[in-house]
Structures are given as C-alpha cells and as structure tokens.
Amino acid sequence: MTIFEPARPLWTSRILSLLRIAAALVFIEHGTQKLFGFPPGNGPHHLVLISQTGLAGVIETFGGLCLLLGLFTRVAAFFTSGEMAVAYFQVHNHRGLFPIQNGGDNAIVLCFVFFYLIFAGGGLWSVDAVIAASRRQRAAEPPPT
User: Fold this and answer.
1) For 114, what's the count of Cα atoms within 13 Å in the CB-facing half-sphere?
2) What is the DSSP letter of 30?
3) What CA–CA distance (Å, rounded) separates 127 from 120?
4) Whole-angstrom Cα distance, residue 28 to residue 115?
5) How far apart are CA 50 and CA 78, in angstroms?
6) Which of 87, 17, 16 is nearest to 55 (CA)?
7) pLDDT number for residue 1
8) For residue 72, what pLDDT band results from cuts at 50, 70 and 90?
9) What pTM did the predictor assign?
10) From CA 47, how far away is CA 62, in angstroms rounded?
11) CB 80 within 8 A of CB 60
C-alpha cells in the first residue's frame, strides 16, 4: 500500500469507530456540563430543563452516549449534527465572521463529523455492527424443519 492508495476497509471501519468514540466523548462533556454542572464551567450552574439550553444538554448527553456506544448511530448523528448547526448559528455566528474569532470551531467540526456519521454509520466497533452481524447470521441459517 502506498500513500496514494485507499486504506483497507477493515482499517477504515476501525478508524471510523475511533473517530465516533472520540467525538462522542467530547460531546458528552458539553452535555453533562449543561445538565449536571460537571465538569465545572465558568460561573454558577443553573439549569432550566425546559429551555433551549436544557434541550441541548439532553441531546448532547444522551445523543452523545448513543454515539459513544454506536447505538442507533445514524439517528443520533442526525440530531447531534443538527444541534451543532443550530448552536453555531444561534450562539457563535453573531460574534464574528471567522470560527476562530467567534469560538464556533468546535461546533462546526462536530457538526460535520456527525453529519458524516449519518452516512457512514458507527463502524466496526459499535452496537449497530453487532446487531447487523446477528441479523445476517440469522438470515443465513436454514429455517427449522
């Protein structure tokens, strides 16, 4: 294999799983900070669950947990990607033109990583892959007589 040839599918699926897990761990931190005040942020922690920030915390925590496990990856990625797009345009965009200036670089990167996961799925190391393998195995078995 040279640097100009694509990687083997087994490796791309493994690295896809690592990308999903790393992004999910970062994402979950933002959610737990909103919901539970952990890790501690700047200033006191006041949460109104029925608010846009509360909804964002729920999506980030539980959507991130689904992404971490690779469970319902495409559905979770759809909601988390959308939430990051909304976060960028509502919170960061008005602070400046460039993401490095407005603090929205994390939101943009996570939005597109999650958007990619909508199409790529969870990878080899995911609950979704285990479920799919189980279904394929059951479909390949001859019916009982």
Assistant:
1) 30
2) H
3) 14
4) 17
5) 21
6) 87
7) 63
8) very high
9) 0.90
10) 16
11) yes
Range from 34-43, 79-88, 111-120 carrying the lowest mean pLDDT: 34-43
Long-range contacts of 4-12 (CB under 8 A, 24+ apart): 10/124
Structure tokens at 93: 């965009």
User: Distance of alpha carbon 83 from its chain centroid, rounded?
Assistant: 10
Q: How far apart are CA 126 and CA 66, in angstroms?
A: 10
| More confident site: 41 or 12 | 12
What amino acid occupies position 32? T
What is the per-residue burial (b if ≥16 Cβ within 10 Å, else e) of 62-81?
bbbbbbbbbbbbeebbbbbb
Q: Which residue's entry shows tokens 């690592």?
A: 18
Domain ranges of the chain: 9-139
Cis omega (within 30 of 0) on the bond before 144?
A: no
- Mean pLDDT, the chain, integer: 92
Q: How far apart are the first and last CA of the chain?
A: 48
78 pLDDT tier (thresholds 50, 70, 90): very high
pLDDT in tens, 122-145: 999 999 999 999 999 988 888 777
3-state secondary structure 59-99: HHHHHHHHHHHCCCHHHHHHHHHHHHHHHHHHHHHHHCCCH
